[in-house]
Design a protein that fits this description.
The complex is a heterotrimer. Chain A contains twelve helices and no strands. Chain A is mainly α. The longest helix of chain A has 40 residues. Chain A is elongated. By secondary structure, chain B is α/β, with parallel strands linked by helices. Chain B has a domain of 170 residues: Rossmann fold (3-Layer(aba) Sandwich), CATH 3.40.50.300. Chain B is 30% helix and 25% strand. Chain B contains ten helices and twelve strands. In chain B, the strands form two sheets. An eight-stranded mixed beta sheet of chain B has the order 6-7-8-3-9-10-12-11, sandwiched between helices. Chain B has a four-stranded antiparallel beta sheet with strand order 2-1-4-5, covered by helices on one side. About 2% of the residues of chain B have low confidence. Chain C has a domain of 187 residues: MetI-like fold. Chain C is 76% helix and 0% strand. Chain C has 13 helices and no strands. The mean pLDDT of chain C is 86. The chains are: A mainly alpha, B alpha/beta, C mainly alpha. The interface between A and C is large, with 55 and 63 residues.
Chain lengths: 284, 317, 328
């Protein structure tokens, strides 16, 4: 069908899930970029007059038990949570892509070895690995957290990319390039990668969202950044200070809600893209 | 006549407009007749089979009617069509090798199917076994999963299931194209046998493979770009084709080329027109060696022999 | 079939071996003295410190070459010796972990199974039904994007603190001792509802989405087209699609197990539910690394065991797998 190429843009613009996802992500981008202009305190600064004050005209989202401004924490926490998701997503996607590509492309014992490794890491729950890694790190920053999350999240990407590569390899143009003596790297980057681009974007989005959820869980069980703030850390502190029992809802509702929204936004984006690139899933 | 198709139109609705995949097609199939339908891919022959059995989006019925045993088929009402499907008209699909549910045993499948159609399975169980034997499938196949069968066996199982209720019209959609030559012969012979045994009354046998039709069809209908080009008895179509397209198509067949004593065409130059916005008049005109000014108008049906119809303006047919 | 099963067993043993090796390797790869790291909590209260340090040095054979240390570690493991807890001194890690395990299992197994069944059912119901699909699908996405711990906190706050419908801490009331009486069981269930619901609902979304997408593919498959061509009613077409879509979902169940662990751990922390997750969190805060390692091993073992079980069960569920093994 020659109509197909233009169709993609058409369906992309018309797809509701894609639009909702983009709107949510754009909103949080705005929060992160414009937010600091309105955040009048540092995350750990004593900001309010009263501890645990509900939202008011000075502290728009209230204060913590330590008199910190929750709105400021929320802005900076969103930034670091987003950053962790993005970095970890990049790392996980890159590792998974490379391993999957080369395993599928090279084949043979190389493939078997890599897939054995992948399958082993796939069954070991990554949160357990993360905990054992994070627990022994004396210092944990946002970057380190991203690295360990990225390094434990790649196995399913590798497996999926490998099977995609295998199926693309079977198509004619790759063997044609091979016969003509083009280097494998060029084949991968010029022939296979573009064909997988949409797929890679979707994988990245899923990794992004997944990493945020893992980071939040790590923060909550006490393995979050040792300095600074994140949405997960906010919830942990709220919990530790009995916010549930005492009813300091402003301490944990905004942070949890935005994590849920960001991750839903990413999932919507992913599904929307899937529907755009995959006609079978479109509404009939 | 058990099947009468009149001015039938199936369009595909797309963003850019209607693709006129089947545009004003009329023909009929007599009792006990196998009508072969041939043409290049995209000529509308598969649309015809699929549309007769199940009109579903994006395909839509854009006009025309189909009478089966004197009754009008409610093609535009999928639910009402359900009562006719399987009982009165049935299909052996192109994808016969994947048509069975891989996780359901064959006997169980037929049982579920019958129950869902409100038919007592125990009444039909013996017939099913007989038919399986008729197509020379081994005993006990009802207890097997489709994945345990070879391609040829799966094909025959589907043929038996599709014809189990003795439908008046059997649609065969490219059933030989996925098979090797020897299995092709077995399968076409079985279709003929179904007709001979009066298991089915009439057959529409769609294929792009004209030599196969030469073996089993009583009449052949040649389609081009969603319309009928020519229809007539098999011998006449193969050896005395009148329409320039049919001539080219027949000449392009390697086995037939030696007996056909006109100019030899290795293949037909050019492409069929896009059906989103087909040209006025004869749709073959762009590729036709005999093009005339009047080809810009749609050619009328002309009878050139006993049951031999041609849609062409050329005078000396 | 035998070959298939023995290959699976080999892979799982290998995986378990890798996991226990990681468990041994990571503390030794980190900067500083591994034993000091392990008992860092005690370094603040120096009384027992020197003695414990010497004892552990001896036990782990720190004076010996690395490889012998590793063998020693394996030997201790085979004897079920996971080490000594520091914050729960003098309990052994093995005792702590095995006491916590039943709580985690009674929480997660029903949550996983029920969310699997209900989620698949609801997902299948909505697939290819425009109105229903459009209204419930966003809801599934939000559920699956919700952090377990946040849902736990919401439920604890709303239904626990505010409405006082459910207790929000522990597996049973402080005043009670576990017993086989009806009143204890009711009390236990009362405590169980909210943590269960947290895991159940987040999981539910994922299953429903997965099933919906699979059903869409199955309804498009050739066998579904054939059924429709034979005039089979929608009910049968959907029943068959569901039957086949269940199979990849069962594989998905194995994959999900690793993710459920996240939910189990954080939910247990929120509700102070005395399972492996809570032990783990307490051990992390108290820097009780033996317990962290013990809990790690226990989690890995459970997930591997469940995966293995699913792999074997799959042979009996999917005739295609069974058939492909005849050649083996």
């Amino acid at each position: 069908m020659r109509l197909k190429d233009n169709d993609i843009l058409h369906y992309a613009l018309r797809n509701r899930k894609l639009r909702i996802g983009l709107a949510i992500i754009a909103f949080f981008m705005l929060v992160m970029l414009a937010g600091p202009l309105f955040a009048r305190w540092e995350a750990r600064e004593r900001a309010g007059l009263y501890p645990s004050a509900p939202p008011n005209s000075t502290n728009w989202m209230g204060t913590t038990k330590m008199k910190e401004d929750i709105f400021s924490q929320f802005i900076f926490g969103t930034q670091s949570t987003f950053l962790i998701g993005f970095l970890a997503g990049c790392i996980g996607t890159t590792i998974g892509l490379s391993i999957g590509f080369f395993a599928g492309y090279v084949g043979g014992w190389f493939d078997e070895l890599l897939m054995m490794l992948t399958n082993i890491l796939l069954v070991i729950p990554s949160i357990a690995l993360l905990i054992i890694l994070a627990a022994y790190l004396p210092y944990r920053g946002v970057q380190i957290q991203s690295v360990i999350i990225g390094c434990t999240a790649w196995p399913w990407v590798a497996r999926a990319v490998r099977s995609q590569t295998l199926s693309l390899k079977q198509r004619g143009f790759v063997s044609l390039a091979r016969i003509s003596g083009v280097s494998p790297l060029r084949i991968i980057f010029e022939d296979i990668a573009p064909n997988m681009l949409s797929y890679v974007v979707m994988v990245f989005i899923l990794q992004f969202g997944g990493a945020i959820l893992y980071a939040v869980a790590l923060d909550f069980i006490g393995l979050g950044p040792t300095r600074g703030i994140s949405l997960g850390l906010m919830m942990q502190e709220a919990f530790q200070n009995n916010a549930l029992q005492v009813g300091y809802w402003w301490w944990f509702i905004p942070s949890g809600l935005s994590i849920t929204l960001i991750v839903s936004g990413l999932f919507f984006l992913n599904t929307g893209l899937d529907e755009v690139f995959n006609p079978k899933l479109r509404d009939q | 006549m058990s099947v009468e198709v009149e001015n039938l139109k199936f369009y595909y609705r797309t963003r850019k407009g209607s693709v006129k995949a089947l545009d004003d097609v009329s023909f009929s199939i007599a009792d006990g007749e196998i009508l072969g339908i041939a043409g290049e891919s995209g000529c509308g022959k598969s649309t015809l089979s699929n549309g007769l059995i199940h009109v579903c989006p994006p395909m839509e019925l854009a006009g025309g009617s189909v009478r089966l045993d004197g009754k009008n088929l409610p093609l535009d009402k999928p639910d009402e069509m359900n009562t006719y499907r399987f009982r009165n008209l049935s299909i052996i699909p192109q994808y016969a090798l994947n048509a069975m549910n891989p996780t359901v045993k064959i006997g169980r499948y037929v049982q579920d199917l019958m129950q869902s159609r409100g038919i007592d399975y125990s009444a039909i169980e013996k017939l099913f076994a007989d038919r399986l034997r008729f197509v020379r499938l081994p005993e006990g196949i009802q207890k097997r999963y489709p994945i345990e069968l070879s391609g040829g066996m799966k094909q025959r199982v589907v043929m038996v299931i599709s014809t189990l209720l003795n439908p008046s019209l059997l649609l065969c959609d490219e059933i030989t194209s996925a098979l090797d030559v020897s299995t092709q012969k077995v399968v076409s012979a079985l279709v003929a046998a179904f007709r001979d045994e009066k298991i089915v009354k009439s057959v529409s046998f769609v294929t792009h493979d004209v030599p196969v039709l030469y073996q089993i069809a009583d009449r052949i209908l040649i389609m081009y770009a969603g319309q009928v080009a020519e229809a007539g008895p098999t011998e006449e179509i193969i050896h005395a084709a009148k329409h320039p397209y049919t001539q080219a198509l027949v000449a392009a067949m390697p086995e037939m080329a030696s007996t056909y004593r006109q100019k030899k065409h290795a293949s037909i130059p050019g492409k069929p027109p896009a059906l989103l916005d087909p040209p006025e008049g004869c749709r073959f005109k762009e590729r036709c060696p005999y093009r005339m000014p009047c080809c810009d108008e749609r050619p009328q049906k002309r009878l050139v022999g006993n049951g031999h119809e041609v849609y062409c303006w050329k005078e000396d047919l | 079939m035998k070959k298939y099963i023995s290959r699976k067993i080999f892979m799982y043993l290998l995986t378990f071996f890798v996991a226990i090796s990681i468990n041994w390797l990571i503390p030794r790869m980190m900067p500083g003295d591994p034993i000091l790291n392990l008992i860092s909590k005690l370094s603040r209260q120096a009384t027992n410190n020197a003695r414990l340090y010497a004892e552990l040095n001896q036990k782990f054979g720190m004076d010996k070459p690395l490889f012998s240390q590793y063998l020693l570690y394996l030997k201790n493991l085979t004897q079920g010796d996971l080490g000594q807890s520091i914050i729960f001194y003098p309990k052994t890690v093995a005792a702590i972990v095995s006491k916590a395990l039943p709580y985690s299992l009674t929480l997660t197994i029903p949550a996983i199974l029920l969310s699997f069944l209900v989620g698949n059912y609801l997902g299948a119901l909505a697939a290819r039904k425009k109105m229903l699909d459009n209204t419930v699908l966003p809801f599934w996405y939000v559920l699956t994007a919700t952090p377990y711990l946040w849902l736990s906190m919401l439920l604890a706050w709303l239904l626990g603190s505010k409405l006082n419908l459910f207790p929000i801490s522990g597996a049973y009331s402080f005043s009670r001792l576990p017993s086989a009486t009806l009143s204890f069981v009711l009390d236990y269930l009362h405590h169980w509802v909210l943590p269960f619901a947290s895991i159940f609902f987040v999981q539910l979304g994922g299953w429903a989405i997965g099933m919906r997408n699979l059903i869409i593919y199955e309804l498009d498959a050739d066998y579904s087209k054939y059924l429709r061509a034979l005039g089979a009613p929608d009910k049968l077409v959907r029943r068959y699609a569901y039957r086949n879509a269940r199979l990849p979902q069962i594989t998905g169940l194995a994959v999900q197990l690793g993710v459920v662990v996240v939910g189990a751990i954080t939910t247990e922390v929120v509700f102070g539910y005395p399972g492996i997750g809570l032990i783990l969190a307490q051990a992390i805060l108290g820097q009780d690394y033996f317990v962290v390692q013990g809990a790690f091993l226990m989690v890995v073992l459970c997930v591997l065991g469940a995966n293995f079980f699913i792999d074997i069960a799959y042979i009996f569920i999917d005739p295609r797998v069974r058939h492909s093994m005849i050649g083996d």
